[in-house]
Design goal:
The structure is a single chain. The protein has a domain of about 290 residues. The radius of gyration is 25 Å and the shape is globular. The protein contains 20 helices and two strands. With about 475 residues, it is mainly α. It has a two-stranded antiparallel ribbon with strand order 1-2.
Length: about 475
């Protein structure tokens, strides 16, 4: 006789969304939203009407296809950075187009997660990224300027949501290729503006004797970091271009990007390019690493501009507590001053809050790691380290296990960008630049899916859920063979 011992398994039936949330009714939602937007445009002042028109067009696009809305934002984001000081709305001290786009991403991301019931636990890196988001949110309450701290937190959450949406939405290789193309295409307008600034001598002249181009950005350095970050991706797309027009266009863009990085006169971006080349050589031909010192020496000897920029970084003394002729000494003083902002309890927990360094000193630290420790404490800094190490391990495994040259080259391109980002962050602040964060985490999301990490992680989480169930471990049916009486 068989005795069956079985514990009831709680029902896992998923909540069914209301009918007006479903894709079949999106057309009617779009028509209704269009009517509302039209009324608002004709009844509001010009700037508010313009903002309403932009938001309305975006929402209509979102209802048609969320992927198109996301790609549209990524395509134009690099071109609107120049409008950072142009307010569209007076709310909160002035909402500029950049802030408006961040709010659109946040709205899009929250709506996508809620309407599609996205299981965040199935997405790699969400745990360390989520911890960092929570720590920075807690830091808003400790920050000396809570309005600026909240603005900084909105930037962080927008980057997080872009990562989640790309992982969840771009499920086919064709869609992921289009996203990578959009990231590179976003550089067309900035490159065009930057070249005009170079030839018309209308760049940034705050550094005596230099015309530093800045494209559509508010400063040359963010423009240089943006170009450096997408430079290896442009190389990959050029190598694997499937049409002559694409190959021709990328063949023109790549040297223009390299020249523009030079013309920004941003030493950190120059170092980033050297790091990228070193990573490429390490994975493909290690013996060529000996050529790097030779090329650097030739650049130093042959280009007076390079010699002058290096001299500015290393020569000179400090004339006061806040000004040094040497940028190295100037940065060192910033790091020392920043380290005194947070108390010991803050340093070992969640820090002094977002923007604490900038509000207190009037300058960023020009060292992302010092800023993270001061503003997010050891918890936020530790989450960032775990995030980067996990991302590196995912990419390295993806490179090793790639089943095609295209995937292997995408992994290598991201390793180049990640290594450059880690190094450049030692002397500059990259994480506070929204446009750089958007494109970096969109690229990272593609790598997570392309490498197979998302599928592996999702299967692990699903298996754990099956084993434990929503209310604790699931007790399996046990059949015991007992002798008949």
């Amino acid at each position: 006789m068989a005795v069956e011992l079985q514990a009831p398994i709680p029902s896992q039936q998923r909540f069914r969304a209301p009918s007006w949330f479903r894709r079949s009714t999106d057309l009617w939602l779009a028509l209704a939203m269009g009517a509302i937007v039209g009324v608002l445009i004709f009844s509001l002042p010009m700037q508010a009407a313009l903002a309403t028109a932009v938001v309305g067009a975006f929402v209509l696009t979102m209802f048609v296809d969320t992927r198109v809305a996301l790609l549209t934002l990524l395509l134009v984001r690099a071109s609107v950075d120049v409008f950072a000081t142009v307010p569209l709305l007076s709310a909160g001290g002035g909402i500029n187009p950049n802030a408006l786009m961040s709010l659109l991403v946040i709205g899009l991301g929250i709506a996508h997660i809620a309407m599609n019931r996205v299981a965040l636990r199935r997405i790699p890196l969400v745990t360390p990224f989520g911890i960092f988001v929570i720590v920075t949110l807690l830091g808003v309450g400790l920050a000396p300027n809570k309005a600026e701290a909240m603005e900084d937190w909105l930037r962080i959450i927008s980057a997080f949501l872009i990562y989640v949406m790309v992982v969840d939405l771009m499920r086919t290789e064709r869609e992921r290729r289009w996203l990578l193309r959009v990231i590179v295409l976003s550089a067309i307008i900035p490159l065009s503006v930057g070249l005009y600034q170079f030839f018309a001598d209308t760049g940034d002249h705050s550094t005596p004797g230099l015309n530093r181009i800045l494209g559509t950005f508010v400063h040359p350095s963010p423009y240089a970091f943006y170009l450096a970050q997408i430079f290896p991706l442009a190389l990959v797309l050029f190598i694997h271009a499937q049409s002559r027009i694409a190959r021709l266009g990328l063949g023109l863009m790549i040297p223009l990007m390299a020249f523009s990085i030079y013309a920004t006169q941003t030493r950190g971006a120059w170092i980033g390019l050297v790091v990228m080349v070193a990573v490429f050589m390490w994975f493909r031909a290690r013996w060529t690493l000996i050529l790097i010192p030779v090329v650097l020496a030739a650049a130093y000897v042959g280009d007076p501009g390079v010699r002058n920029r290096i001299a500015e970084a290393t020569a000179g003394s400090c004339e006061s507590e806040t000004y040094c002729q040497s940028s190295v000494l100037w940065r060192t003083k910033q790091w020392q001053a920043a380290s005194d902002i947070a108390s010991l309890p803050q340093l070992v927990t969640v820090g002094a809050g977002q923007r604490a360094v900038y509000v207190t000193l009037g300058e960023f630290t020009h060292n992302e790691y010092v800023r993270l420790i001061v503003e997010t404490g050891l918890i936020g800094f530790g989450a960032t380290v775990v995030l980067y190490v996990s991302l590196f391990n995912i990419t390295r495994r993806g490179y090793r296990d790639a089943d095609s040259e295209y995937k292997r080259d995408v992994m290598l391109a991201f390793l180049m960008a990640l290594a450059a980002r880690v190094v450049m962050s030692g002397a500059d602040n990259l994480l506070v630049i929204t446009v750089i964060e958007w494109y970096f985490w969109a690229f990272a999301a593609v790598v997570v899916v392309e490498s197979g990490a998302y599928d592996r992680f999702a299967h692990i989480q699903d298996d754990r859920r099956k084993m434990h169930g929503p209310s604790g471990p699931v007790k399996r049916t046990v059949i015991i063979d007992a002798p008949a009486p």
